[in-house]
């Protein structure tokens, strides 16, 4: 799947014909990426499913048929498809559909927010390290090496175990976990770009370091960093749910997929299908992000070397 | 080669020191005083002072760190606050139980991963490639703690073939019952390495296949099996690197799977220590797992250099 600009132009003869009068009017990089994505059914389906999950989490208060925190003690562990409760009820008689809808809010937040913050912080530090080199690089990268010495799950659990439970602590620990890998990848791609001719030309014309980083380096390193960050979101969602599954993340009675999985775990002998439901959503969401990351990777023609 | 190994060994020392500082500082992040967790809230003042002196909490932070490091270097990880047993002995037993699962899981995951990755790359773009890519992306997207529950539902609850949890032997499995208790945890643990390794191997093999020397070998009429040998040898360093990382994750990430299967490994120990606020056990477990990860990466680097002399620089 390595298409060049030329291939794409020949695939759109109509466009190329109309533009014949204006020579060398080739479409921009991001236009190309968009066109390639539009012809990638797997990525499009993944994106559609993800949009559906995100929208249902945002509009949970409108969509949920019941209060996700209030259960009827007489209505416990009703099976999937039970009249009035489409997806059944949990061990304290709360409506599963409502809890799954609300659960998406916490699970998606704790998957996306840490990666977004880590992307900003780690991207800045990594690009700076790669761009300036020398002592700046040494300081940033040696500290990164130390964080990198911990397997990501271990680091998240360690930080959460020390800080205590709660959404905020989950976000802090996951952000800290994802900053080092983003620094690594940003530093490595920036090092490849910074000595290219157009950067030297801009430097020779008097551009200052931060202008160079913003206008010459950033556009050329954004694609690989973005692709990598998308795949990290999928990991973040699994990790965040895993933390609450262990009892280290958000605590009861919050509606969160990992926490629901944990409290329903005792019920696998009574209704295994019901107990497995929250995990299906964690899996589905994480899969969507991985598929989108793969789609972006081939559309942006990124080859990551980690 | 020797000088590369020595250089790489020396590089690991500052990282190990940094790791020890980080683990030491993590404890300082715990809200409140470490002593408050050990003593009752109505403890007399002189007892508090005595305990402070005993644990060295009355000294400045850097002295506390050096004292802790000195103990570490003598193989002393301190004593559990919960039951006053030496941390090192408890941790050693637990690590053994973790390795009993991690090694077969690594063999299974890496074996399948390499096989899937190579097969997918050789069939690039065909149906087999697409099917295997789906398998590997599922492997990296599945929350393995959930997959563990699904396996328990199928094989323990519904079919009643395998035990749902627990380790049915002491150190090594010697009976059929013991082996049966390992099956579900090992399958669960092998899932992520299978997915990750197969994706990396596929990419590495495709990258090597696009190089010109492969064309040359084919053009010279070399047997396709010999060409495959050359391709695999060139894809080996990238594969080794990811296998090293994944083995480290198997140990560090064992906490979730060990919790589901109630397996008395290092992950379970860490989980218990967190809920008991047993700081020495927490510190010791995290430190030893991280140190092991650093050394593992070192071994991988040396192994890579053995295969590919260009890495020795």
From TrEMBL, chain B:
CDD domains the UniProt entry points to: TM_PBP2
Single GO MF descriptor: dipeptide transmembrane transporter activity
Subcellular localization: Cell membrane
Q: Which superkingdom does the taxonomy of this entry point to?
A: Bacteria
Keyword Transmembrane (UniProt): yes
Q: Name one GO cellular component term.
A: plasma membrane
Transmembrane segments annotated in the record for this chain: 12-30, 99-122, 143-162, 182-201, 240-261, 281-307
Q: Which residues form the ABC transmembrane type-1 domain?
A: 95-304
Specify the protein's topology with respect to the membrane: Multi-pass membrane protein
Keywords for the protein's UniProt record, in alphabetical order = Cell membrane, Membrane, Transmembrane, Transmembrane helix, Transport
Xref: InterPro entries: BPD_transp_1_N, MetI-like, MetI-like_sf
What the entry lists under Pfam families is as follows:
BPD_transp_1 (PF00528), BPD_transp_1_N (PF19300)
Q: What is its main location?
A: membrane
Protein family (similarity comment)? Belongs to the binding-protein-dependent transport system permease family.
- This chain's protein is named ABC transporter permease
Source species taxonomy: Bacteria, Pseudomonadati, Pseudomonadota, Alphaproteobacteria, Rhodobacterales
């Amino acid at each position: 799947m390595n298409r060049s600009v030329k291939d794409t132009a020949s695939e759109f003869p109509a466009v190329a014909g109309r533009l014949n009068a204006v020579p060398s009017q080739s479409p921009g990089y991001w236009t190309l990426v968009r066109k390639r994505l539009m012809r990638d059914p797997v990525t499009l389906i993944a994106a559609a499913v993800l949009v559906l999950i995100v929208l249902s989490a945002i509009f949970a208060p409108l969509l949920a048929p019941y209060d996700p925190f209030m259960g009827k003690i007489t209505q416990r562990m009703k099976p999937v498809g039970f009249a009035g409760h489409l997806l059944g009820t949990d061990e304290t008689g709360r409506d599963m559909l409502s809890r799954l809808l609300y659960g998406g809010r916490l699970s998606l937040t704790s998957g996306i927010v840490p990666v977004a913050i880590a992307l900003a912080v780690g991207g800045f530090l990594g690009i700076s390290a790669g761009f300036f080199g020398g002592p700046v690089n040494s300081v940033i990268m040696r500290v990164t090496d130390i964080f990198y010495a911990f397997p990501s799950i271990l680091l998240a659990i360690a930080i959460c175990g020390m800080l205590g439970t709660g959404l905020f602590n989950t976000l802090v620990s996951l952000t800290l976990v994802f900053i080092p890998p983003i620094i690594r990848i940003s530093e490595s791609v920036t090092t490849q770009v910074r000595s290219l001719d157009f950067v030297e030309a801009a430097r020779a014309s008097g551009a200052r370091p931060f202008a160079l980083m913003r206008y010459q380096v950033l556009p050329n390193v954004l694609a690989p960093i973005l692709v990598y960050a998308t795949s990290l979101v999928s990991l973040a969602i699994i990790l965040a749910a895993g933390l609450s599954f262990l009892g280290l993340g958000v605590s009861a009675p919050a509606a969160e997929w990992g926490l629901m999985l944990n409290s329903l775990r005792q019920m696998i002998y009574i209704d295994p299908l019901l107990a497995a439901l929250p995990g299906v959503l964690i899996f589905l969401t994480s899969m969507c992000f991985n598929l989108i990351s793969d789609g972006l990777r081939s559309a942006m023609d990124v080859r990551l070397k980690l | 080669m020797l000088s590369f190994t020595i250089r790489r060994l020396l590089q690991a020392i500052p990282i190990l020191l940094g790791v020890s500082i980080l683990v030491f500082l993590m404890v300082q992040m715990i809200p409140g005083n470490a002593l408050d967790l050990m003593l009752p809230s109505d403890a007399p003042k002189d007892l508090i002072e005595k305990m402070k002196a005993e644990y060295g909490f009355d000294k400045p932070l850097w002295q506390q760190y050096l004292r802790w490091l000195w103990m570490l270097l003598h193989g002393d990880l301190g004593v559990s606050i919960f039951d006053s047993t030496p941390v090192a002995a408890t941790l050693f037993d637990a690590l053994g139980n973790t390795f009993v699962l991690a090694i077969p899981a690594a063999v299974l995951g890496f074996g399948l991963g390499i096989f899937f990755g190579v097969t997918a790359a050789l069939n690039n773009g065909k149906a087999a490639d697409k099917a295997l890519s789906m398998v590997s992306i599922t492997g990296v997207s599945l929350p393995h703690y959930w997959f563990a529950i699904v396996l328990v539902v199928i094989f323990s609850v519904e079919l009643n073939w395998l035990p749902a949890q627990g380790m049915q032997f002491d150190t090594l499995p010697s009976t059929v019952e013991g082996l049966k208790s390992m099956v579900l945890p090992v399958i669960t643990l092998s899932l992520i390495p299978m997915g990750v390794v197969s994706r990396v191997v596929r990419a590495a093999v495709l990258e090597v296949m696009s190089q010109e020397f492969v064309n040359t070998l084919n053009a010279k009429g070399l047997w396709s099996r010999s060409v495959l040998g050359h391709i695999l040898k060139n894809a080996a360093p990238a594969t080794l690197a990811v296998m090293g990382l994944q083995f480290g994750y198997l140990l560090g990430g064992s906490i979730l799977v060990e919790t589901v299967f109630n397996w008395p490994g290092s992950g379970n120990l860490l989980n218990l220590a967190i809920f008991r606020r047993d700081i020495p056990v927490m510190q010791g477990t995290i430190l030893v797992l991280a140190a092991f990860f650093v050394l593992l990466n070192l071994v991988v680097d040396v192994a890579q250099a053995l295969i590919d002399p260009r890495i020795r620089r």
